[in-house]
Amino acid sequence: MVVDPPPKRRASGFRRVRTVHDLQPRVEGNSAARRVTSDGIYLSPLRQLTTNLVETYHICNPQFRYESAHNPRRVLTKPSKPAHNDGYDNEDYDYVLYVNDWLGTEEGHKYLILDILGQGTFGQVVKCQNMKTHEIVAVKVVKNKPAYFNQSMMEVTILELLNKNFDPTDEHHILRLQDSFIHRNHLCLVFELLSSNLYELIKQNQFQGLSTQLVKVFMAQLLDALTVLKDARLIHCDLKPENILLKSRSPQIKIIDFGSACHERQTVYTYIQSRFYRSPEVLLGMSYTASIDMWSLGCIAVELFLGLPLFPGTSEYNQLTRIIEMLGMPPLSMLNTGKQVGQFFDSYEVWNAHTSQNERKYKMKSMEQYSREHGTNEQPGKQYFKATTLQDIINTAPIPQVKSSRCSGNEVEKEMANRAAFIDFCQGLLNLNPVTRWTPQQARMHPFITGEKFTKPFVVCHLAVSYRHY
């Protein structure tokens, strides 16, 4: 006799799953066992153990108390040993910054320190949260020294002028200054938070260089910004890839670091511009104008395309040597007026039969002579390119698609046409003579920027406000 087994009993609390709907969680929102907020909302276990964790701990242990001051304080400044300013500054007069510390005051704006973004001779830049708007921003904390304080106050003045009077709608790729205040004797400047700089972009690309199309996109934006600066009669004085930042992950960029900027009528400093991007007139000790920014722009344009700096000088002498080897001697008008010319050149007189008078000529000092006279040990420096002319360096740069054999003859022809326009564009920016070097307004008319077909060298008429493409 066969007896059917008794039906299996389900454990208490379990229910049979028949459909997908039975797998959905059922939350009893008004369970009597749950806490209720002041608004009468029942708290789920997830919220009780996350956003309401402090209250949960307090219920478990009435003696528990939480204070934000107990948060971990990871030090961000190096060195971090207190030395000045009642222990708030280190030996370099940098403010010693900690994660979860505050900048600002209760009465004014307060900024919660999140992380370090960078450090330089001027001070530090930290990532912060504006506790009033909850926006993530970048705060420059300037060194506690009068020279840096005064220069940074000039940066505040210049950015306020640009932001309010010349670019009020934030259209011209210039950094926005949001706030400024004093915190324990340190001037703090609050900026919009941007992404990585163009040097980092080149580095991420293994220093292989960017396409002419992407270089064009960047150059058009930089020329737009420099046009605004020229209208405001301002000189940036330190244009380089590190001072051009991307907005998020888009090809939109902004010029930053106006700490060295000045008005055209107040060009008091002689040691300006980072060496690789330093103009011939600054190297020679001449008075300078906004055209020095255009020289820097030409150096940046070539570096973006090649992936390596065009003039990586190891010293001012080496920098000038590299420029002259590629572009030739500066005009006599520059050599006759530069205050530093005697450091780099020997001068001598030559009789001119046509004018019946002596003419001054210049010859660059040899590396050995310069080293002997200045007590240095000059070296030739590393050569990044086999070619010696700007045209050959650009034209012989590899085309990425050709390496993978996917580039047709038409594409190569199109690329070389783009390069021809690019070479002509760069030559206008890297003009040794600042008087005839293109202005931002003139460079914006070049076919490389406008997209017009390039057939012959672009010629600018300097005597009239008109531009012609011959």
UniProtKB/TrEMBL annotation:
Q: In terms of domain of life, where is this protein from? A: Eukaryota
- The segment(s) forming the Protein kinase domain are 111-449
UniProt entry keywords in alphabetical sequence: ATP-binding, Cytoplasm, Kinase, Nucleotide-binding, Phosphoprotein, Serine/threonine-protein kinase, Transferase
A single GO cellular-component term from the record reads: cytoplasm
SUPFAM superfamilies to which the protein is assigned, alphabetical: Protein kinase-like (PK-like)
Q: What PROSITE patterns does the entry give? A: PROTEIN_KINASE_ATP, PROTEIN_KINASE_DOM, PROTEIN_KINASE_ST
Q: Where does ATP bind?
A: K140
Answer whether the UniProt record assigns the keyword Secreted to this protein. Answer: no
The record ties this protein, via CDD domains, to: PKc_YAK1
Please state which protein family the record places this protein in. Belongs to the protein kinase superfamily. CMGC Ser/Thr protein kinase family. MNB/DYRK subfamily.
User: By what name is this protein known?
Assistant: Protein kinase domain-containing protein
What species does this protein belong to?
A: Agaricus bisporus var. burnettii (strain JB137-S8 / ATCC MYA-4627 / FGSC 10392)
